[in-house]
Amino acid sequence: xxxxxxxxxxxSNGFGLAMCLHVLRAGHQVIGSVRNKTKAAPAVEQIxxxxxxxxxxxxxxxxxxxxxxxxxxxxxxYLVNVAGYSILAACEVITDNDAxxxxxxxxxxxxYTMQAVLPVMRAQKSGTIVNISSGAxxxxxxxxxxxxxxxxALEAASEGLSKEVAPHxxxxxxxxxxxxxxxxxxxxxxxxxxPASVPPHYDDPVGMVMRKFLTVHQKQPGDPQKGVExxxxxxxxxxxxxPLMGKVTRLVLGSDAYARMKKSCDKWAGELSLQEDVxxxxxxx
Length: 285
Description:
Layout: E1 5-8, H1 14-25, E2 29-34, H2 41-49, E3 53-56, H3 63-71, E4 78-81, H4 96-124, E5 127-132, H5 145-165, E6 170-177, H6 184-191, H7 203-213, H8 224-236, E7 250-253, H9 255-274, H10 276-280
Parallel strand pairs: 1-2, 1-4, 2-3, 4-5, 5-6, 6-7
Helix pairs in contact: 1-8, 3-4, 4-5
């Protein structure tokens, strides 16, 4: 029996590259995707030398283009949607171009990759889709409204999809990482406006959050290698996270993410209990 085949987007750096290399070390087959092989040459070389392969795939491509490229790959056992980015800005000043690019990259692109792999997974009667989200989807911060919206959309689609494909033995896992020591914050700085440009009436809290984000580059507590190990374990049913397989919809990674999600869930549970009578009062008598 041939080893499983993984398609991992965003393989040029960070979680995507680390995931490719970890999976290859486990003896599985890997197809990594990058936007541009020339610009991602160091990552492409690492993946190729480790025994994997790389294709060019941009999350902003059309649905038909993404479908054509993925359909040509044949068997896919695991799809891991890592590709994504964030901008920081006050909601009021987000431009049409920024909104479109953010939603296309973080939501529509992954949506199209999922749609592209589902026919072959259904035919195989097996498959796993992993979508890398963020705690921002469930606990949006100031300056993160657009990014949070893109990840919340991805999570909602993932949850709905998981119920649709369960009868076909296809699993969907949402991963919510905290602050890991990747290039995410560095890319954030490039994509976002200068914090000094934030309108004075939004400096507190938008400007404050932006400045705080930009100071943590390479100081994040999360180890990407440990993060990808837990993801691999959770979807293959092995190691420390293996017992979670099929039992959790979301995999929370990082002590900071765990504390943030617990606080958010506790807050929502408290708000829900306050409004029980109001909620139940709106039914017909």
